[in-house]
Amino acid sequence: MNELLQIADLSGLYKTMPQSAPKSAQLGGNEGEDFQTVLDSAMGLIGETNTLQNKAQMEELKFELGYAENSHDLFVAEQKASIALQYTVAVRDRFLEAYNSIMQTQI
Fold first, then answer.
1. 3-state DSSP call for residue 15?
2. Residue 59 burial (CB count, 10 A)
3. How do residues 42-94 score in pLDDT, each as one tens digit?
4. Residue of 56, 41, 53 whose CA lies nearest to 95
């Protein structure tokens, strides 16, 4: 539950949340645009993860109130949300590793 609130808080920091994957890096020139594309993709991932977390909570509520006919839908929604959260955390960790690597670079 705490993870859901944190993801929802993060999604408000960024205005646009595209759902597309980043373009491959081009040789020469547009490094700033390439970084922006990767950042947009990561923020889209946060939005998707938040949506899946909300769907899992809704399925859980339906199941608890007796509106769900089977537990399969609940299990699938929870697994999707769990995998999306794990993937989002892994992407965040990679961004932090890259940031720390850049910060330790001596000029």
1. coil
2. 21
3. 889 999 999 999 999 999 999 999 998 889 999 999 999 999 999 999 989 99
4. 41
Residue type, 64: E
pTM over 0.85: no
| Contact yes or no for 54/80 (Cβ under 8 A) | no
Q: How far is CA 102 from the centre of its chain?
A: 23
| Residue 84 token pair | 């999306």
DSSP letter at 25? P
Contacts of 4 (CB under 8 A, 6+ apart): 50, 53, 54, 57
Q: Which two tokens stand for residue 38?
A: 């990767």
63 vs 58: CA distance, rounded Å: 9
